[in-house]
Amino acid sequence: MKLITAIIKTTKVDSVKDALAKIGVTGITLSEVKGFGRQKGHKEVYRGTEIEVSFLPKSKLEIAVTDEHLDKVIKTIEKSAKTDQIGDGKIFVTDLSKVIRIRTGESGPEAI
Q1: Average pLDDT, whole number, for the chain?
Q2: Which of 108, 17, 19, 20 lies closest to 66 in space, CA to CA?
Q3: What is the CATH number of domain 2-111?
Q4: pTM of this prediction?
Q5: 7, 15, 28 from 60: Cα distances, Å
Q6: Measured between alpha carbons, how far is residue 33 from residues 55, 62, 112 in Å?
Q7: Are 107 and 98 in contact (CB under 8 A)?
Q8: I want to staple 29 with a disulfide (CB 3.0 to 4.6 A). Which of 61, 62, 84, 112 is the partner?
């Protein structure tokens, strides 16, 4: 089992969610986060004063998947989140040693 963490542009959340639903993903956790990578933020003018905004708003999706669904979910996120612009985001994959569904007590892949 794996945990996919995808940091994407907030404008792409709906398209990623819809694409994942089409391939059968039933659970996603969404968090609104701020961060920066190579784009290093940007400058804005507020009341005539230039302000450097170094942390940009992003969306973090967390999706638990079985090993056999991993590649398909990653490809779906890549395809639906891509804009070919700097700041499209990143995808991280980590191992899940245990998953437990609280309501039923199920554990392992059945709990996903």
Answers
A1: 91
A2: 108
A3: 3.30.70.120
A4: 0.86
A5: 5, 14, 10
A6: 9, 12, 24
A7: yes
A8: 62
In order of 5, 33, 95, 103, the CA distances from 70 in angstroms are: 12, 24, 11, 25
Please state which of the ranges 17-21, 33-37, 55-59, 93-97 shows the lowest mean pLDDT.
33-37
Give strand ranges (E) for the chain.
Answer: 2-8, 29-35, 42-46, 49-53, 56-65, 89-95
Tokens 């290093």 map to which residue? 40
Strands 89-95 and 29-35: unpaired
Take residue 106 and report the two structure tokens written for it: 């199920």
Cβ distance 83 to 9 under 8 Å? Answer: yes
Q: How far is residue 16's CA from residue 82's CA, in Å, rounded to a whole number?
A: 10
- Weakest-pLDDT range from 7-11, 19-23, 34-38: 34-38
Radius of gyration of the chain (CA): 17
